[in-house]
Amino acid sequence: MSKLTLGPVLFNWPPEKWRDFYFRIADEAPVDVVYVGEAVCSKRAPFFDPVIPDVVERLEEAGKEVVFSTLALIMTEREMEGVRALTAPEAGLTVEANDISAAALLKGRPHVIGPFVNVYNEGTLSYLARQGAVRVCLPGELPRESIEVLAAGKTVDLEVQVFGRLPLAISARCYHARARGLTKDNCQYACGDDPDGMELETLASEAFVAVNGTQTLSFTCCNLAAEMNEMGVEYFRLSPQDTDMVAAARIFREILDGKESAEGADDRLADLVPDMPYSNGFYYGVEGTAFTDPESVSE
Amino acid sequence: MSATMELVCPAGTPASLRAAVDAGADAVYVGFRDETNARNFPGLNFSRGELADGVAYAHDRNVKVLVAINTFPKAGNPGPWMKAVDDAHEIGADAVILADIGVADYAARNHADLRRHLSVQASASNPEAIRFYAEAFGIKRVVLPRVLTVAEIAALNTQIPVETEVFVFGGLCVMAEGRCSLSSYITGISPNKEGVCSPASHVRYEEEGDVLVTKLGECTVNRFSAGEPAGYPTLCKGRFLVKGKPQYLFEEPTSLSVIHMLPELAEAGVTALKIEGRQRGRAYVAQVVAAFRKALDAVATGEPVSAEELATVTEGRRETAGVYKRDWR
Amino acid sequence: MKRSQPQTKRSQAQAGAPPLTPFLLAGLALRPVPPALLQPFLTFSMRAIERRHPSLFERLSGVEEPEFLIDPTDLPFAFLLSIDPLLPTLTAYTDAEGLEPTATIRGPLMTLVHLLEGRIDGDAMFFSRDLVIEGDTEAVVALRNAVDGAEIDVVEDVLAFLGPLGSPARIAFQVGAAIFSRAATDMETLRSALIAPALKRSEAQAAELKDLEDKVAGLSQEPRRGRRRMPVKKTKKTDTE
What we know:
Chain A is α/β, with parallel strands linked by helices. Chain A has helices spanning 15-28, 45-48, 52-61, 77-87, 100-105, 122-131, 144-152, 175-179, 245-256, 262-272, and strands at 3-6, 33-36, 65-69, 95-97, 111-113, 133-137, 157-171, 198-202, 207-212, 215-223, 235-238, 278-279.
């Protein structure tokens, strides 16, 4: 049975907006799993911490599986302590490990591996499964051939992002701060200005990427509406953008239920992210910016 | 005074290997001529025979050879990576430098006596991650990702059971290594899978009057006006429009050099110093290795690193201490 | 512990003698040698290099029989380097128009020489605006890496291949032999100019360049004029033993 998941909000939204977003997801979105937590920058976490209990309670009351996402890049002792607390057995939380350190701390207990851990092949997948991973969200750059191989021999559930800007890189350096001539230490939370990321263009004024603090994302919006039913995986991730994600979830739910076509989904999604071109290039093993017509791809 | 740090030097060809050995390397790191390593560039790297010769040459002079097998095998085709580990063992390499968990598992199970280092591409930036690799696969040394300050490296070294190796010179990854898909986003070719970042096959130089435009695939990475030195179009060192204004948002076209920070790195408990640049020529290798050899020897005896050494490696270069200094972030 | 700088014979040899490439043959152009007479020597040199450095061509095997047009902008001819794995060739052209090389590398002779000797490395080669690269960048990178890895030294290679002075091979090399001895002298002259320790310093480089430019300026008065768009005649057989 295919399931829809909602990935963690990757952007720095105001805490009230963040809380209300999840409340509405809990009340209205046809998603089965909701990831909550700060994956990008530890400096943001204190703002969300106070509202997390309310959000989790609301989601769980609505019957959603709640998974706590860890940071992707853990550098400081404080960040490490945060991950240790989140993954501690006594906390009793279901956790998505976005760094191998978190997976190590979760060893022997069921957990999820997030897309920031490099799982490219069956050797790594089976090792992590033996460690206790029950679900693995694959990295965004994995092509169809790899997903098929992993799906065929798997001992754990697999998850693939099918909607939203794709994470491309994470850095120690904060580019939002740098754009303002600041550094990460005195960033003034510049990333809060751009709820979908700060769009960069090339010198030829063409779309390039979106910057989200220390993270770099695709300018394009990943859209695997046409491909999701052929992948052989069970979980499909929608990565939140600053749009009506309830509507997006409904569209993808209809596709899984066979009630909507990919073309229909493309049209409806365009209203949700009107300024983001679609892409599925990674899936077809070409440049990630590409949006390939599945019809044109030979089997 | 801390023990002498080991100088780990790059070689893309047998000629560079000999140049590195002759210039005073303690260890040379190399890759096979295929996608099993992260410098899979045309015309570069070692055949099995060349590696055997290189190992003989280095071992005769008490220099170690480390083989980088630091890309992530394609699902369904781990063979070339396993073969690379097998062959490195067979040829007598002193260690393999691994990134993938599956490959590390394979090496630990099949060649327990082959020393294993963790590649920077594994992005192990904290004590729990490093302990995991040490305990699970018997990793003896970790090459630290370029995300930590010297103070953080010092703190880390008190918490982990393995040696650390840090980059001291050369091309600077701005993003956390092994976690960057910018190249494949623009070209379809990925450092993690194919072992190539910003592949030459997708590079174009276009003249627009006096302006030189550098492109990677369809992406304009930079424009240089007449007289402005041009750079190779690596995406993270490109100039882009930030709210309409051109800026080197990720990083200037600069390279890392911390030859002046060697005493601090020794103090931080670092075991080995790594020079980047397997894709560079043997002249580069000879020059940079010799400069660091002298500098290291000076540090070992408590002498200051002379300005002369600094000049050798920094002449005409734009350089940065990168993340080793906190304000880089 | 103070570690002494390991200085083997090899590294001294490397430091003292840049591994010359076929393009140092352009040194020939510093003498008023008719281009037609250049070709046997180019071909001969390629055979020598091929025998002594099979790895060079092996390293280029990933690229499908590339052809590189090496075009020293300050010389009266360009060279087409064809990497046929069975028979790599180097051909001089007084006018390269109409050729369709995989890639073209264009720049002042000295820059090209530095590039192909490994003095300009894979990254730096792109920084210099003196150097223009057209066509397949990947092929150029492969060539650069291959040449750098091969440690070619044309003078040494060709002499070794010819055998001892006065050997039948040398004598049989008729026109080529005559050119060769003169060329070898030229190359040694050029080489000693190139390997001056001052090479790194730009003012010295500029002076050398000026010197070369002067010589080249004199050369361009030479008889090649009027032979546009004509490949220099190829000598089929070079190994006349």
